Structures are given as C-alpha cells and as structure tokens.
Amino acid sequence: MRVFIIAVVSCATFLIPSLYAQESVKGDIDFQIRNYGYDIGFGVQRKAKKIEWKESVGLRIGSINHPKEVFVINQVLPASEPFVMDKISRVWAVKPYIQKSIQISKHQSRFDIGFELFGALKIPMAYSWPIYVWVQDIRQPFDSYREVKYNPTDHPPEQIGGEVSYFKGFNEGRLIPGIGANLGFSLVWGAYRNWENRLSLGFSQDLFVKELPLMHSIDRNPQYLPAVFLNFALVFGGN
Prior knowledge:
Blueprint: H1 2-15, E1 22-34, E2 37-48, E3 53-64, E4 71-72, E5 83-84, E6 89-105, E7 114-122, E8 125-130, E9 132-136, E10 145-149, E11 160-163, E12 174-190, E13 195-208, E14 224-236
Antiparallel strand pairs: 1-2, 1-14, 2-3, 3-6, 4-5, 6-7, 6-8, 7-12, 8-12, 9-10, 9-11, 12-13, 13-14
C-alpha cells in the first residue's frame, strides 16, 4: 500500500509543471492491443508554451487475458457453446494515466509525418470476478444443466456446456490495485489543426499487489505484466 500511495503522489507531481502556460488543448480517443489483452481510452492533450513537449491525461479501460487462453467447444453435449478451458476469472482494469511526449520531428501540415517519443505513468485498478459455467447434471435421467462456479478440478471439460452470462458473479469480485509505466514512440499525421492520427508502438510494465487469478492449472498467475503494445488514436480539437 505504501508503494501505491507513493505512485499516486508521483503521478500528481509529474502533472503539476505544465498546468500553467498552455497554448493548445486537444482531445483523443484511442484503441490499444497488447499481448495481455486490449484497451479503449480517451484523454486530453496539452502543449506548453515555448517547449517542444506535450502532456496527456486520460483513462483507459480494457480486458486482461492470459496468452495461454484457448476457446473450446464440447462436441459431446448437444447445443454446447464455446468456453475458455482452465480460465477461472474475468479480469478488467481501469487505468488512469499521465503522459509526456517530446516532439522530435514536427507535424505542421497534412503532408507531414511527425515523430514523438513518450513516457507515461499509470495506476491500473484491476477487478476480477469468477466465471460460472453450465455443467451437465448427471444426477438427472435426462439432459439437464446447472450453473456452477467454474473449478477445473471438479468440472471436467466433457461435462461443460458453455459459460453462463458474462457478468454472472460480478458482485463476488475483488479489486486489485497496481502501478505501471509506458515507453514508446508515435507517428503523427493528418489535418494538423483540426484532427490528427497517431500510431504508437511501445513497451508497458504493470505491477499489481497480488497475482491476477486468471488460470487454474499454471504454477503462477501473472502479477507483473510486461507487454508490447500497438495503439491507434484519433486526436481532435485544439486552440
């Protein structure tokens, strides 16, 4: 918890120097894919006077998935639906962030391509809740199913007919806070004054206070999530 508090204070300190002397403010909407899932986000971008750097603050929300997840269908039971074998929890994360970027090559017209380097601090807050599945009720003389909290030890794949509602068990979830950082570069192009496209490639590192309960049979669920990401953003507005 002490590390978490220090991270919050550091993020606030990171933001303060450019709250004044702004010359432009823009908004952005972005979509990001990574080897642990995907994110959708929005933010506000500020550019300080007389300094070739920008600052962004925003929020991303996305799913955290394990690279070993595999969808399967039970071919034995009738009307079976796909489910992820061995996955015991769904995990989504909200990630407030602050980011600073330095302009290496300016983008001044729709025919230019700008180049920027960026670094960001974030405070990911993950929420995990158990997965429920339909299991064949072998106690009945006819085809019947009952919904249970998925436990691969007690529920073999040949008895599973699919997953229950996506948000079933949501009220049984728990919050897992963390800290993280991004580093990378961006290519910027577009109409310059009205809208811009931004394509970013980078590396992210997230560290949570405990393991994320994604899979059942692996020796250790992820707590530290290094990832390569690709991000596309539409930047609009300005003054």
